[in-house]
Specification:
Shape: globular
CATH topology: Jelly Rolls
CATH class: Mainly Beta
Distance between the termini: 25 Å
CATH architecture: Sandwich
Number of helices: 0
Order of helices and strands: EEEEEEEEEEE
Largest sheet: 9 strands, antiparallel
Number of strands: 11
Oligomer: single chain
Strand content: over 45%
Helix content: under 10%
Length: about 140
């Protein structure tokens, strides 16, 4: 996981412009809205890289490298936060008490009929798991 605070690239009397990507071949963009206190994710992608930009609410972003023996890490994300999820990073999201909305930008298969083609589910959830050396069952969602 790479966390990044976005910076304003241009400011004048009308307001500001913040570049999210520059010279990047984004292949899919989606807006995801979540109800309060739900869990999302519990999967990884073998080839896909995705970025999340929080636009409303908050969430806990739980993550760890696939096959790592380390405990999962967690980062609380709030409005304006921007995080990159590289391939082979297990991730799970715990949505905050007021719900959440975020925009996902993707390089790789992730939209339309390809939505689940590079998604590999695992259990137990990283959110509940805090044990070192926990074994994860990985399943392919079709």
């Amino acid at each position: 996981m790479k966390f990044k605070k976005l910076k304003e690239n241009f400011i004048d009397s009308r307001g500001s412009i913040t570049d999210i990507f520059y010279k990047t071949n984004i292949q899919h963009v989606a807006i995801i809205k979540s109800k309060p206190n739900v869990r999302r994710g519990d999967h990884f992608h073998k080839k896909t890289t995705q970025w999340i930009l929080i636009t409303k609410g908050s969430l806990e972003y739980w993550y760890k490298k696939l096959n790592s023996k380390e405990k999962p890490m967690v980062k609380v994300l709030k409005v304006g936060d921007f995080v990159e999820t590289p391939p082979n990073e297990m991730h799970a999201l715990k949505i905050g008490k007021n719900g959440n909305e975020f925009v996902v930008f993707t390089i790789g298969k992730r939209g339309g009929k390809d939505y689940e083609s590079d998604t590999y589910r695992f259990s137990p959830s990283l959110i509940k798991s805090r044990k070192k050396n926990e074994n994860y069952k990985i399943t392919k969602q079709l």
